[in-house]
Amino acid sequence: MNYAVYIPLIPLLPLVGFILAGGLGKKYLRSFSGTLCTGIMLVVTLLSLYTAWRYFMADGQWNGVYQKITAVQVSWLEFSPGVGIDMGIVLDPISVMMLVVVSVVSLMVHCFSLGYMKGEDRYSTYYAFLGLFTFSMLGLVVAVNIFQIYMFWELVGVSSYLLIGFYYQKPAAVAAAKKAFIVTRFADLGFLVGILILGIQGQTLNFDTLIQRLTDTQSARFMAITTGSFLGVSLLTWALALVFAGGAGKSAMFPLHIWLPDAMEGPTPVSALIHAATMVVAGVYLIARLFPLFALNAVVLELITWIGVLSAVFAAVIACTQTDIKRVLAYSTMSQIGYMMFALGIAAADGHGYTASLFHLFTHAFFKSLLFLGAGAVIHWVHSNDMKDMGGLRKLMPLTHICFLIACLAIAGIPPFAGFFSKEGILLAAWENNRVVYYIALLTSGLTAFYMFRLYFSIFWRKPADGGHTHSEGTWTMKLPLVLLAALSTGAGFIPFAHYVTPDGRGRTEHLHLLFSIAPVLLALCGIGIAAWLFKKASAQPVKLAQQLGGLYRAAAQRFYIDEVYMFITKKIIFKGIGRPAAWIDKHIVDGLMNGIASATAGLSARIRGLQSGRVQDYALYFFGGIITLAIVLLYVWR
Amino acid sequence: MNGIPITHILFVSTALFFIGMYGLFTRRNLISLLMSVELILNSVNINFVAFNKYLYPGKMDGVFFTIFIITVAAAEAAVGIAIVINLYRSHQSIDVEDAATMKY
Amino acid sequence: MTGSQIIFYVLSAAILGLAVLSVTTRKIFRAAIWLLFTLVGIAGLYFWMDVAFIAAVQIIVYVGGIVVLIIFSIFLTQQSGQEMPAPPLLRKVAAVLAAVSGLTLSALLLNRHSFTPADADFDAGPERIGMQMLETGAGGFALPFEAVSILLLAAMIGCIVIAMKTKPAAI
């Protein structure tokens, strides 16, 4: 069977789900829409897995190199010969990998939501939005054209906006949705400019051609883009930095991360899907997709590396202090994406970082969505997001407890869980390429173990179990995804990832360096130990420690005042300094002119209206007067 | 030719025309309007006859036009008055301002 | 000034004066009477111009037919003694202005144009009119005559249809 026959179904089926659930859901399908969409996602997932199996096992390889297979390509908008927006589906190791990740996580979330969202007022709308998101995300990962990626990128942003603001009665949710939209939009502006620069310089928007043309260091185009400069920086650097800015916005990298914690106002399964596993890694995916270009530019790679490292450690520190469990998870997501980013940043030399980064993306998707779904189950149980309201749940929710523990071990990098392998890959790449980065990353991994187990112990231990709750842990539809994802979080690490995903498509075999692994694992165990000491039993220790840390703790708890800085810049500087005067000019000068014209016209017409009396005799009089005037003019004046 | 230049006759007919015009502008009663129209038609008739008699005595066209105009005027008056009477029946008024059912 | 001239000016003055009265009086019945005298005056003008046949037609059709019709309709539609409302001053002034300026313009045009009267006898006796009216050859008016007769027929039928009393049920 040819790829083109069934591949389009993968992105399009969720769209069908969206149309069905969105169009008919409220009236006809109602609670069936969930089952319907989940069924559709099951088909999509099976197709994705089949595609992956075929691509990696059967016919993706040619002479030991994984080929780019363009399954479908339709020319859609042709601006000029060669430059146009093509829609299509490309299969290469990373897109196939992403297909699997997106569809599997999406299926899990669909399934989990059957129980979680049950009885919700806008149940079918929720599934419609999930369908829209899945469609856009799948369309994004298979894009053949940089503009196609951009379009789906925006669609993903829209569906994220819709889902964050799903509980639109809550002002916080509305504000969070707007914040997410505006911040990512702002970043996407940079992305668009970057695309345009690349498009103009490369005379194409298709990835293949673009990469081919701009990586050929002998060609005139390459010379043009590297020698042409703006503000002393070459055009290529600008373009790549701007594209990275777009990616950083979506992936919540350091200065643009402020939307991600607030985005947790959305339903928890949505956070699992969008804000943990798929959409936020779109930035990483974008850079991986354009990696041959990034590899040429040391400046931008350096930028990516340092922003990644900074985000990783910064978010980890904040995560240690938050008490809202979803916010802890959000900062941990940001931290992990920081890992992926800097791994890409240091990957130019040998490509190890590239593989490790995408491997981490792969495993992270599973254990982080597992964490979110577990958190969702917990929230479902206690009806609160706050750690203080939890505790002692291990007896009451045994299954959730086990799954959550697995996910925590995975993210902390304890062997043999999935996170261990991918994180070791990243640390190894950092050790080989940049020692400073390595030490920071090592520290961060210790912090990661600490805050994750702080979360774990706070939820499941600390307090004795109170027998007040009698209802069950959740329906089987909520349990099944947890179990499956726990299995994936355990087993995904054993996939020989380097064999499949490398920058040049040539498979490699990587060996574990057991000696090297000692340091990170020990550090992680230390983190776990400290967390257990502080949080396993209710005690005064954490408060004391917090007091001793003083300013640092407060600053971290307040998220290092980044939001306040933004508010200061936007409110005080932009609104007051620029917005107000501009509004004044608009209101009084531009509008005044318009209003003047309008009122003059209105006044004139009010005068003229008196002439339109509706009396035939008046009209006859005007007519007659007009004739006489015309006659006088034509006979005596004009002659 | 009787010692009267044609312009004087034409002036009389023009004056009659504008008197009719004045009536047409100022009257609101439909029958008065009809009377003003008769005045205008008559001024035209005078013109036709005068032109025929003074400028083209060999022909009869002006006279015939006058006859036809009188005929048409009679028909017009008959139809107009039928309409006026009908209007009066339905609206109890023959003021032009009141006949506004089909306006606007 | 010959008698003919005197007659013309007197006739003209009477026609114009009566016409002005007819359009300015506020009693509609009087307006009709003034109109009647205006039309008689115009008939006199035709006599003065030696077109006795037209003058006769004028008297028969206008004075005897149309004005009588008008008077009947006045009787049918309103009290003849009632005064009509005076037109608003503005409208009156505007109408006077329009009429006077139009008249001035026409008079100026008339003065500027020099008509050259043909020096020939004008015979408009009933016999000649009748012959030419029924003439079918060149210069004959048989076809317009027929057309006008059809018009009259149509107008007659139209009058009957319009003025016919409709049954209440049909409305």
Derived from helix and strand composition plus strand pairing, the structural class of chain C reads mainly alpha
Estimate the strand proportion of chain C: under 5%
CATH class of the largest domain in chain C: Mainly Alpha
CATH fold naming of chain B: Helix Hairpins
Beta-strand content of chain B? under 5%
| Helix vs. strand class of chain B | mainly alpha
Give the overall shape of chain C, derived from the CA principal axes.
extended
Largest sheet of chain C: none
Oligomer class: heterotrimer
Biggest protein-protein contact in the assembly? B-C, 70 and 84 residues
Q: Tell me the helix content of chain C.
A: over 70%
Total discrete domains of chain C: 2
Order of helices and strands of chain C: HHHHHH
Distance between termini of chain B?
A: 54 Å
In the predicted model, the low-confidence regions of chain B spanning at least 5 consecutive residues are none
Quick one: how many beta strands of chain B? 0
Q: What is the number of helices of chain B?
A: 3
**Topology order of chain B in helix (H) and strand (E) letters:** HHH
